[in-house]
Amino acid sequence: MPGWLPQWHCGVRAKQSGRLLAFIAAVPQTVRVYDKERPMVEINFLCVHKKLRSKRVAPVLIREITRRVNQQKIFQAVYTAGVVLPKPVLASFSQPEEAYRRSILASLRKNDHCPYNKVV
Asked: Which residue numbers delimit the Glycylpeptide N-tetradecanoyltransferase N-terminal domain (predicted)?
């Protein structure tokens, strides 16, 4: 992939056995938003060993890859995961912006980041 940097591949290995326990990577992408092209990275979080999942390794890896990408003056990313969602995430509305807005507001309300009465 053109533009990738080796420091954008970050892994955690066991000290004694050398086994790969966790891995995260950033791949450069150019994403077109309406008529503007924006440089972004695609973050691919491949694995975390089952015993480390309760140790909060994933947020540490995400912060580290974010720091490394920000050093290259790229401040936006798309996160990917190989997870199958159990039900549809999006319903069809009259305007696509409305669907996007509703999904964001629903997640904000769910996580208590904004009260219901302040959402416009």
From this structure: 2-89
